[in-house]
């Protein structure tokens, strides 16, 4: 361990010394919760505040126990489609419709430029998956991704820290042990995690352990330096309903639980990533087992989507799974857009994806009794009862769309809508009970 | 009771005599369940097969215990927008995307013409709310809906029977008692059921009991004559998250439970309608209490939607609530379109609404272990693993949309999609593990 000046200490280390970093005061205010709640949550590892120490976010947030459910939007290019301006447009619309964080998952040649622009323009925390870039570079400069070294991976992670990234997904639970368990049980869809599959390819062909697991301390040092929150990736997440909650998935989760505890002990904030494709009756179980195995670390889930058969509508399959997950323990929902399983999302897919996830998150906030949640619905329904359309529009999760739709078939009586026309039940009873 | 020839007996009466109507054999085959399951379910009142005896449906279905979750699509005009052709287009698209039943809720001047056309063209059971037409006629011919008589209501119901309607919503649980309980507790949004609000207006201004409750035997006689299944409407369903699961709603449900038992005893098939606006943590409770109070009668829910704040996206709020409801006991999901709370649905809204509800229903079928459900997901994921796009498209809930989306950003390698491009995890592991 290098000696650190106090200002270089991580948030957890500062809190242990009794110092409260300013960012936490700002977050407590934005979250409308008591500062003590945030502080004790970070110290016990049940709350994270992803915030790279090289910059200041306009809209930082806290993720975890007792807090409003947060939503992440994935953006970024692939080799098949690279347009930085479009990604910045996606960032803008994601934030407009309420994304609490974004992940830039770019894998194209302009990956770093995209990342720098996203970090520069994002008011919310930015996450990345540095291993993509490490593999990309190895493939480009060394002829094959197989020649990637542990140094290449950690160099990429350090670069992301320097570039101002707030949280990184690292697939540390892809180990010889979890891969072996997967192969032993067998799976319909093997691995659907990009980072996970590349690491497995590297491990199998080189017959070596995953450097992100083997040199976990090195990872912690870099993350501490830049105050990057670790998001322990679930490379083994099921990619098919058939594979849900199998031994590979839970084996990886056990390993992630161990690593999470070790990370917090060593002063680094950490959250756990979760599935994936999960049948609805297994969603709650998946949330409870994560809390149990990972000391209640914040749980960041992708979806989960509750059926495989709805490409084009996976924002809906994910909203179903996400709402139930968030009600049962998930803290952070990664959106899924209608385009998942088909192509990169467009700007409009990003908008729809964020809104669907926000609906799931808000439904869970109401269910959990998060202060302020059901009050939003109260205001909306009060305006509805009063047939106050301007009031209603302003409370809508997407005001523009609601205004546009109502205008498309105009009612003869401006107080009602064309659904029931004169037979509007609210109007009828307002007259009767007035 | 009039004497009935055997052929005039209701399905329940025939089953009690040991005769099995042909329609049930057809339904058992379509449902892929043993005929005994359907027969015993109908006899004990846990399954209904809505099927007017004046016609033969191409796609009849059974709704209830142990069966695949069914989906209903509401179509129909209002006074503000009347176009029969458009409604028939909605019928067509609803059936194409998997609606198991439709309800024609027309309230315009052409209500009967619309109904006749819908019944004529629908391969699936058609439901209606006859009381709309009764009130509409009273308003038109008697100057005010207040002059409506019990005869007017039962004449309308008889007409719907003659017109070939398979199931009718009747708000029999709107009684002096339940209305009083509602007024005593108070509500944010009072009543949002059109039929319910009109009946309350009539009851309050005339100081009379609801004829649908008072003369329930008369209702049963008509329904038996045409083998119309009764759908006991929930006029007291909450229209705001704030009002969910209150005393008025449960009081009505108690009354509906009594009436349902009496209907089955008297040879008429019956299901119960349910909410509405329900916070996610109360959805399961609502399903369990219905089963308990109503002798496990089939439960037909509208949504439920899990937040009030998302007009324009209520197919999603309803898919969340519907999936959880169906997993917890609901048997029949009434779709909600994006346009709910804003205007009449367009043809495209109907399509999206049906698909969202089918996703919810299918997610519940998987969760409940309904035979054949997860096999669909298995096929999809097997094709996905094989990167067999033609196979995948054919298993998609909406093949056209999936094909269109994938084509919008073409991948360089035709085996993958533009989401991950060359970094496709499935492709990577297919190469490693081949």
From TrEMBL, chains A, B:
GO terms for biological process: thiamine biosynthetic process; thiamine diphosphate biosynthetic process. It catalyses: 5-amino-1-(5-phospho-beta-D-ribosyl)imidazole + S-adenosyl-L-methionine = 4-amino-2-methyl-5-(phosphooxymethyl)pyrimidine + CO + 5'-deoxyadenosine + formate + L-methionine + 3 H(+). GO terms for molecular function: 4 iron, 4 sulfur cluster binding; phosphomethylpyrimidine synthase activity; zinc ion binding. [4Fe-4S] cluster binds at residues 417, 420, 424. Keywords: 4Fe-4S, Iron, Iron-sulfur, Lyase, Metal-binding, S-adenosyl-L-methionine, Thiamine biosynthesis, Zinc. Coiled coil: none annotated. Its cofactor is [4Fe-4S] cluster. Its EC number is 4.1.99.17. It comes from the Bacteria. Binds 1 [4Fe-4S] cluster per subunit. The cluster is coordinated with 3 cysteines and an exchangeable S-adenosyl-L-methionine. InterPro entries: ThiC (IPR037509), ThiC/Bza_core_dom (IPR038521), ThiC/BzaA/B (IPR002817). Catalyzes the synthesis of the hydroxymethylpyrimidine phosphate (HMP-P) moiety of thiamine from aminoimidazole ribotide (AIR) in a radical S-adenosyl-L-methionine (SAM)-dependent reaction. Belongs to the ThiC family. This is Phosphomethylpyrimidine synthase.
